[in-house]
Amino acid sequence: MSAPAVPDGGSRLPAFVAVDLGATSGRVMLGVLHDGGAAGGPAGERAPRVELVETGRFPNGPVAVPRAGGDVVDLRWDVLGLWRGIVAGLREAGREAERRGARVRAVGVDSWAVDYGLLDADGALLGAPRSYRDPRILGAAERVYERISPAEHYAVNGLQHLPFTTEFQLVAGSDEAAWASARGLLLIPDLVTCWLTGRQVAEVTNASTTGLLDVRSRTWSSELLGRLGSEYPALTGLKDVLPDLVEPGTVVGPLLPALAEESGLGDVPVVAVASHDTASAVAAIPLGARAGSGQAGEGVAAYVSSGTWSLVGLELGAPVLTEASREANFTNELGIDGTVRYLRNVMGLWVLDECLREWERAGDPVDLAELLAAAADEPGGRCVVDVDDDAFLAPGDMPRRFRAAAETAGQEVPGTRPALARAVLDSLAAAYARVVSRAGELAGVEVTAVHVAGGGVRNELLCRLTAEATGLPVVAGPVEAAALGNVLVQARAVGVLDGGLDALREVVVASTELTTYAPR
Asked: How many angstroms separate the CA atoms of 97 and 474, rounded?
């Protein structure tokens, strides 16, 4: 059981600020920790609960930026806009904590994976970081595999093939002027943490997505870095620009003085949480019978961290590095407390979101709730396509591309918007079912339930279709999994909570309303 939250100085509750950056939006969340009080349980206590309050939200997305001459367009992230939103959110978090009789005890940052910023010798950012959807990555992975085989990669980093892994981005950009001037490389959450504290570190859960980490030792791989340097001379010094690795829960340092004053938070510590947003989300998924899965304790629960991407898999104690696992394109990414997130990426709600954006661009927007209600009335199973096809990766006119994929696959082409939405969700649920089943086989475990967390929890139709496709009970919640996991790791890092993952997840159960969908 986690230690109960103790009011600060006998009067003020501990609070934590989670900066949670996604590929389509960023937000700042204040997490106030409340003492659970007596519950008559074995320890005579109920787990503390977290109250989450949004104190800042701002849009995000890749920005098309033409180069001089106009022949080349780069897709880059507006990190300065994100920073402006983060600082405003920190100020509001401090004010909200005061209103609630709480005191902010720490700050933590999580974000999407693989993308990075380059720093010069003075620690200044060398241009806006590129998006993983930037066209320069096309063909880079194949060029690398001609020199360092997929099997050699997998034996060390345990990663699935994704064309935009950091390693491939680095190869694609190794002949650019910015790389020649680079003296530091920081993944997006580490870049924000650096701007908060002045310190450069690499948190290990996000670093494990770069392709440059040894998944067994949880350290940078000298073997892969050496091979890359020998094959691509421009990358010879790559190991020198990579920062020191830290585990989740490491206190990186206090807020910089100017920022401490500007935000009103004072010199609170900044904690390296599980900075890959999926790692934070999985930390807050209650993977156990007490979470409401209805199981007797045998077998394990799979998870779906559902958002722009869906990450589908298992939490394991060691990586699975077999040839069968590599051929099935499963990845071994690192989690908190020495765990491994054994999973596959599924394209996720990006496909449906892009359909909505295309209709809005065309001047005929759709209400999502009404669309999903109409989609629920559509016959299911008439159109199921492979949503992981690279054809769905880029933005732009998703309805046309989805219908083209349906026609190519010999499926019934959806003729209406509700039929198209139903086909997208049927395809997603089928992908989830395939991945859950295969993960259990490859890891040698029996999967007895599926937990859905993140934005997809709000999509009741998708949760119901997932239960039907997998034949397993689906436990939905929490929605704000990444922010909640972020807060919990901070609270443990500064001593407000204690215990392992099970204890943290007891706090999740006390803080969240979970819904179970039974298979039909």
From this structure: 35
Cβ 15 vs Cβ 509: under 8 Å:
no
Flag whether 455 is in a domain: yes
| Rounded to 5°, angle at Cα 405 from 402 and 409 | 140
* Tokens linked to 195: 């701007």
Residue 231, pLDDT > 80, answer: yes
Token pair of 4, please?
Answer: 């109960």
Query: What DSSP assignment string belongs to 124-193?
Result: -B-SPPBPTT-GGGTTHHHHHHTTS-HHHHHHHH-PPP-TT-HHHHHHHTTTSHHHHH-SEEEEHHHHHH
Scan for tokens 């704000």, then name that residue: 480
Among 304, 342, 295, 351, CA closest to 322: 342
Packing angle, helices 417-443 and 460-470, rounded to 10: 50
Both 328 and 457 in one domain: the answer is yes
Number of H helices and E strands in the chain, helices first, is 19, 21
**Catalytic hit among 277, 353, 388, 426:** 277
What number is the average pLDDT over the span 230-235?
96
Q: Is 120 a catalytic residue?
A: no
The secondary structure of residue 119, as a DSSP letter, is E
Q: Check whether 216 has a pLDDT greater than 50.
A: yes
H-run or E-run covering 230: helix 222-231
Same domain for 171 and 268, yes or no, is: yes
504: in domain: no
Question: Rounded distance, CA 413 to CA 383, Å?
Answer: 7
Distance CA 409, CA 388 (A): 13
pLDDT (tens digit, 9 = 90+) per residue, 476-514?
Answer: 999 999 999 999 999 999 999 999 999 999 999 999 999
For residues 260 and 293, state if they share a domain.
no
Residues 290, 257, single domain; the answer is: no
SS3 content of the chain, % helix, strand, coil (to 5): 40, 25, 35
Query: What values do phi and psi take at 239, rounded to 5?
Result: -60, -25
Note the pLDDT of residue 520: 85
Banded pLDDT at 45 (limits 50, 70, 90): low
Distance between CA atoms of residues 425 and 492, nearest Å: 37
In a domain, 482, yes or no: no
The pLDDT of residue 322 is 98
- The domain of 473 spans 285-477
What per-residue confidence (pLDDT) applies to 8? 55
If asked whether residues 214 and 315 sit together in one domain, one would say: no
CA 70 – CA 72 distance, rounded (Å): 6
E strand or H helix that includes residue 51: strand 49-59
User: Could you give the number of structural domains in the chain?
Assistant: 2
User: Which pLDDT belongs to residue 234?
Assistant: 96
End-to-end CA distance of the chain: 35
369-415: per-residue pLDDT in tens? 999 999 999 999 999 999 999 889 888 899 999 999 999 999 999 99
Rounded to whole angstroms, how far apart are CA atoms 453 and 101?
A: 30
| pTM given for the model | 0.90
Task: Count CB neighbours of 468 within 10 A.
Answer: 19
